[in-house]
Design a protein that fits this description.
Keywords: Amino-acid biosynthesis, Cytoplasm, Diaminopimelate biosynthesis, Lysine biosynthesis, NAD, NADP, Oxidoreductase. This is 4-hydroxy-tetrahydrodipicolinate reductase. Its EC number is 1.17.1.8. Homotetramer. One of its GO terms (cellular component) is cytosol. With 267 residues, the chain is α/β, with parallel strands linked by helices. The protein folds into two domains: 149 residues, 3-Layer(aba) Sandwich (Rossmann fold); 106 residues, Dihydrodipicolinate Reductase, domain 2. Helices cover 35% and strands 25% of the residues. The protein is built from nine helices and twelve strands. Strands 3-2-1-4-5-6-12 form a seven-stranded parallel sheet, with helices on both faces. A five-stranded mixed sheet has the order 8-9-7-10-11. α4 runs parallel beside α5. It is elongated and about 60 Å long. The protein binds 1,4-dihydronicotinamide adenine dinucleotide (NAI) and the ligand O=C(O)C1=N[C@H](C(=O)O)C[C@H](O)C1.
Length: 267
């Protein structure tokens, strides 16, 4: 049998991290060799997460974990503030980053792409790993060719740090590539409450809702003459992201450079 792909998970005690640990443990081609989270050091992953992770212990030190466990792949589900340093370290040690954490700039992605190529390794940055969300983005880009007036409402749990979501930003990027540059709405519109019209990317408005009860949801709403079209995706739990995470851990072994968007590995 081929050697397993060795994976460490950073942010392993978080909502996405613990789901990822379980998905890796279930997959026959992947091996969990390390788990990192902020406050945990030398504590059994099995004990903390209630799974059978063998002898793998938590560490609170990304660099030490990368050096000692020599993984092929580092999966990051942490925070916008710490994810960047983790990607830099992974590339420095020749470990392929698979990043779900949102909140990076196009310039940073371009620099990591260059660094991965220089190191001869692949990387994945995926604002959303759920196949339904990728299809939503694809259909939205297609719809924008015919109905170019568009706004997004994204809805997430109230513990999310970044707004708008990485998925909303990626959707608007894909739409702006698909439609002609244009203005939207009334040129003289005025907000009597600041922020009422949401954020703006290339003339398109995005509205972020944060409430308990939500997981991850997005509506892309198009308006045309006498009609509207709404494309909606709902992640009703975090298992929805796992096939994409597992696929990325495998595909990232096969190329060089940083891929931004799982659609580039799927479609
Ligand atoms: N790409 C995708 O499909 C998805 C992406 N996300 C993104 O993933 C990120 C994480 O989301 P959640 O799991 O919901 O957050 P969370 O808050 O539940 O988990 C983050 C974890 O990172 C740990 N952490 C923070 N600083 C750390 C450090 N310096 N070193 C090691 N660990 C550290 C925290 O202790 C926590 O356990 C967010 O940016 C979110 O937007 C979430 C869901 C899906
Ligand atoms: O924080 C989350 O939960 C999610 N974050 C990602 C994003 O910002 O788009 C992906 C998904 O929406 C869940």
């Amino acid at each position: 049998m081929a050697e397993k792909i060795r994976v460490v998970v950073i942010g392993a005690k978080g909502r996405m991290g613990r789901e990822t640990v379980q998905a890796i443990l279930k997959d026959e081609e992947l091996e969990l060799v390390g788990a990192v989270d902020r406050t945990l050091d030398g504590v059994s992953v099995s004990d903390v997460l209630g799974v059978d992770a063998g002898s793998v212990q938590f560490s609170n030190d990304v660099e030490k974990t990368l050096v000692e466990t020599k993984p092929d792949v580092m999966v990051d589900f942490t925070t916008p503030a710490v994810m960047k340093g983790n990607i830099d370290k992974a590339i420095q040690f020749g470990v392929r980053p698979v990043v779900g954490t949102t909140g990076m700039t196009p310039e940073e992605i371009a620099a990591w792409d260059q660094a991965c190529k220089e190191r001869g390794i692949g990387g994945v940055i995926a604002p959303n790993f759920a196949i339904g969300a990728l299809l939503m983005m694809r259909f939205a880009a297609e719809a924008a060719r015919f109905l170019p007036h568009v706004e997004i409402i994204e809805m997430h749990h109230d513990q999310k740090l970044d707004a708008p979501s990485g998925t909303a930003i990626k959707t608007l990027e894909l739409i702006s590539q698909a439609r002609e540059q244009m203005g939207q709405g009334h040129p003289n519109e005025h907000e009597s409450i600041a922020g009422a019209r949401g954020g703006e990317i290339e003339g398109m408005r995005v509205h972020s809702v944060r409430l308990p009860g939500y997981v991850a949801h997005q509506q892309v709403i198009f308006g045309g003459l006498g009609q509207t079209l709404t494309i909606r995706h709902d992640s009703i739990n975090r298992e929805s992201f796992m096939p994409g995470v597992v696929l990325s851990c495998k595909e990232v072994m096969k190329y060089e450079g940083m891929v931004y968007g799982l659609e580039n590995l799927l479609f």
